[in-house]
Structure formats: C-alpha cells, structure tokens
TrEMBL record:
It comes from Geothrix limicola. It comes from the Bacteria. Belongs to the short-chain dehydrogenases/reductases (SDR) family. This is Beta-ketoacyl-ACP reductase. Residues 9-192 form the Ketoreductase domain. Pfam families: adh_short_C2 (PF13561). Signal peptide: none annotated. CDD domains: SDR_c.
Length: 254
C-alpha cells in the first residue's frame, strides 16, 4: 500500500523553507492540495509555488503572520474558497533564539512566546472550526526535543515547545469526538536555516553536534517531512495525542 494523500486539503504554516518547505513538497507529491504560509521569504515562497505548480501539483502560497488571528482568518478563508474546505493543518512556523536566565531585555522572550505558543492558539481558533465544517481532520504541530529535556540558554524556546506538547495532549481528547486527530512531531537538531548559526558557521562545532547522533548524521528537513505526512495519512488513523520523536536517537524519552 502506498502513501495516499490524494486531495487532502492542507494548510502548512512557515512553508517557504526548511522543514515546512520539505513538508509542502512531500505532501504535494503524494496528491495533497497544499496551501502554505510565509512571512518574509516571498521570493522563496513564490519559487516553491511555481516549482510545484509546474510539476502539476496544487499549491497556494499565502503571506501570513503566525502571531495574528486576522491572518489566520484570511488563510483559512483562502483555502476554503479555493478548495471547498480544510482537512489538515501543520503548525510548523516558529522561531528559535537565545534567552539567558538573567534576562535583561524581554523583546526576544515575548516574540518567542507570541509566535510559538500564543500564535498557535489564535490559528487554532480559526482552523478547528474549519476542520469541523469539513467533517473532521488532522492537526500536526512541530515541537522539539527542547520541549522534552530543556535547552541551556534557550529557556523560552524550550518552554514554548513544551507548551506545544501539552497543547497536543489537551486537544486530542477535546477534539477526538469531532473526528479530529492531534499529534506532534519533535525534532532535535535539523540542518536548516533556523539552525544555520550553530551548524554551518563553525566546522568544529558542527562536528561536536554530529557526534551526539547514534545514527552518525544530523537530520535534514526531509527527514521530518515523512513523519508529518505519515501522521496525516490513513496509516495513522488510530493515532492521536502522541509525540513522534525524530531526533536521530539523541533523546530517548519513550
């Protein structure tokens, strides 16, 4: 049996690059109709849309800010207008930045929480009614190993991703009776633009990070796209409230 996502009407946030872009590509290639949001990378977003459209896939790029409920309303309305409904939401957009314990400037702290946590609540307030209108569906949220074990010097990010896990555990029983499954994918280090300052600047530091992986390599964005697609597929029809760890064996939390 092959992975069949034919006509799955999906909205992916933060889809212009990294894990988001890899997910958009994979879902589209397996038959899904995929809308994805971007905020600053318009050239990359439009290039991705053109690439997939030229290959015969149905894609839609939407400029939207994860922090704004108004943008969620616009994005959901665009998907429903284009395809008649929404079946799946992938909450991928997020930011990662340092927040030392002896915090002097709250700007970064508030930006992380507003984007990674509060923004998700605002988008869910628009996405979940749309899934119900479609008769059920799927939510897959991107968490992190940081949300499971913490991350030194990045307490706000770790707290935000721990909140994502708690949100999944809360939404799964709440939305199950409406036919909506809710799961998370939790990566560790992934070689994307987000982690580029740590992984692509200093070869020695990259080597130290790579050495912690039992599989001997740092995962790439495509390694995360497959698990997301799986959780959206009929193969995962009895899975909800779970956190699928995709971290190369670096965090074994069961």
């Amino acid at each position: 049996m092959t992975l069949d996502l034919a006509n799955l009407r999906t909205l992916v946030t933060g889809g212009s690059r990294g894990i988001g872009a890899a997910t958009v590509r994979l879902l589209a290639r397996h038959g899904a109709k995929v809308a994805f949001t971007y905020l600053k990378r318009e050239d990359e977003a439009l290039a991705l849309q053109s690439e997939l459209a030229a290959a015969g896939h149905t894609v839609l790029a939407i400029r939207a800010d994860q922090r704004r409920r108004e943008d969620a309303q616009v994005a959901v309305a665009a998907v429903e207008a284009a395809w008649g409904g929404l079946d799946a939401f992938v909450g991928n957009a997020g930011i990662w930045a340092a927040t030392p314990a002896e915090l002097e400037d709250e700007t970064v702290l508030l930006d992380i929480l507003e984007t990674n946590v509060t923004g998700l609540f605002r988008w869910h307030a628009e996405v979940i009614p749309a899934l119900k209108r479609a008769g059920g569906g799927h939510l897959v949220l991107l968490s992190s190993t940081a949300g499971q074990r913490g991350e030194s010097g990045h307490g706000a990010y770790a707290a935000s991703k721990g909140a994502v896990i708690s949100l999944v555990k809360s939404l799964a029983p709440e939305l199950g009776p409406a036919g909506i499954r809710v799961n998370a994918v939790a990566p560790g280090w992934v070689d994307t633009d987000l982690s580029a300052p740590a992984l692509r600047g200093d070869p020695a530091q990259r080597a130290r990070i790579a050495a912690i992986f039992p599989l001997g390599r740092i995962p790439e964005a495509e390694d995360l796209a497959g698990p997301v697609a799986f959780l959206l597929s009929p193969w995962a029809s009895a899975i909800t409230g779970e956190v699928l760890n995709v971290n190369g064996g670096t965090v074994l939390c069961g």
